[in-house]
Amino acid sequence: MSLPPIHLWNVDAALEPLSGGHRNAVFRTSGLDQDLVFKSTRRSEGQLRWLTPVQDAAEAAGIIVPRLIATRDGALNGESWTCEPFIDGRPFQPEELPQIAGQIAAFHLAAKALSQRPEFCASYELEATSLGGDADMRALPEDIAELCLRAWAALDGPTGVVHGDLGAGNLIHTTAGPALIDWDEARVDALSFDRIRTQPESATAAEKSAALAWEVASGWGIEPKHARLCARVLKARV
To answer: For the segment 18-30, what is each residue's pLDDT rounded down to a tens digit?
Structure first.
């Protein structure tokens, strides 16, 4: 595993790997006044800069976010790595996600006018475009692709900017409030992709299937074991 080029940020510190980065390598520093997290990234400079107004909206809703730190040359992508502050605190438990339902709803409202992330598309647009973000329908077996498209076509609800990976592992209790990390899958899509995590009691079968289909399509080439497991579950549902 290659190490992040921390010199691009004028950083000199010990590094240790962090667990939980299923699609990215993740390291944190130790011994700094403000420790940092370095992540490998597939996102372009434009895709990373798109996050600025998105995270503005999250902060306006009372959510703490780790803002990306530019390299000494002003780039957010440094040789396919990013840098952000390390956020200390207690991880959320899955049953605690409804606690932030109001803040996520406020975030959705604050971000509703924002445009699509560059080179991304919503799930329900993938029948026409085939490629968006990590989802590449051309890489899927024909029967699996058809299952995914059918699941997304059944979605019926509001759209807007979503975090896209709103699991307990990406939420942290801090002394200043809830922090939400890992905005790698953020995009404009059906708001249900976030709401099924914060309002699970009201999630419909169609919304759950659509979320499974996204895991299949976006992870097929990056996280194949997980994607194929989700595909088996999806086959039993759709």
So the answer is: 986 678 999 999 9
Q: Which helix (H) or strand (E) holds 210?
A: helix 205-219
pTM: 0.95
Per-residue pLDDT tens over the stretch 2-15: 899 999 999 999 99
pLDDT at 238 over 90: no
